[in-house]
Amino acid sequence: MVSSQSGRRSRRWKAMHDLSPRDPHAGALPYGKLNLRRNPFGELEADDWAALALPAVDLDDVARRLREPGFRVQFVGPSGSGKTTHLLALQARLPEARYARCDSGRPLAKAAILLLDEARGFPRGGGSCALGVHEKIAGCAMTVELGAVPLDRLDLIVRSRVERFRRGDGPVPEVCLSRLGALLERHGGDLRLVFAELYEDIQDAAM
Q1: What is the pLDDT, as a whole number, of residue 121?
Q2: 77 CB-near residues (< 8 Å, 6+ apart)
Q3: Main-chain phi, psi angles of 117, to 5 degrees
């Protein structure tokens, strides 16, 4: 796959949000010639998060335990390490749970189970919660530490995303290991930034 041009890098994040699956203009892009239904590296729907998550822990067990009153689990790691992926995959398993970003400025919704991204502490009320944090918080019954993603795991994640949005039989875009290795080195393991570049690669190839 041809790597994205440097002149396009400043608009990668805007492109990821402007051409999310909910964008009515997204379907106008000719992904068909790539044998894809959409760009695999854009924003995902809840069912996609659940299907594509390669969790570091048994999320079915975590979901079961979150239904116990007062259970607390934290996913700890740097930006792009998979905290949001784990929380959204839990949301797909827990219809009664509510996901929220604590840095959004919006008040937290009331729910029996809260899934809080970019959390700095526990929510009020003492209910069950799963937190995405950069530093450990004392008082959690379970801590899942998320580190840098190795190259072989990133390769599996990328292949899974492409297969998820395959249109039909035949070849689909592939990303070579050298490209993925270069992206990991450039972005220090931040998968959001890695996917932003891959998103732009697909956009360029689809035009």
Answers
A1: 87
A2: 83, 134, 145, 146, 147
A3: -90, 150
DSSP state of 22: T
Instruction: Please spell the DSSP secondary structure of 81-135, one letter per residue.
Output: SSHHHHHHHHHHH-TTEEEEETTS-PPPPP-SEEEEET-SSPPTT--EEEEEESS
CB 100 within 8 Å of CB 113 = no
Confidence (pLDDT) at 105 = 67
Q: What global pTM score does this model have?
A: 0.71
- Cβ contact 59:117 at 8 Å: no
Identify which of 50, 52, 134, 47 has the alpha carbon closest to the alpha carbon of residue 90.
50
What are the pLDDT digits (tens) for 122-180? 888 778 999 999 999 999 999 999 988 899 999 999 999 999 999 999 999 999 999 99
The confidence score (pLDDT) of residue 14 equals: 38
Structure token digits, residue 33: 């010639």
Q: Where are the alpha helices (DSSP H) in the chain?
A: 12-18, 46-52, 59-66, 83-93, 151-164, 177-187, 191-206
Residue 42 CA to residue 177 CA, distance in Å, equals 21
Greatest alpha-carbon pair distance for the chain in Å reads 53
